[in-house]
Amino acid sequence: MTAETKVIPVATTDRQERRRSWARHEILSAALDLFERNGYDSTTVDDIAAAAGISPRTFFRYYESKLQLLLAHEHESTGFDGLLEARPPSERPLDAVAHAVRQALVELVTNDELAVRQLKVALTTPSLRAALIEQFHDNQTELTPAFAVRLGTSENDLNARVMASAVAGAIWTALEDWIGEGAAVDRLGTTLDKTFAALQSGLA
Question: Which pLDDT score is estimated for 76?
Answer without folding.
Answer: 52
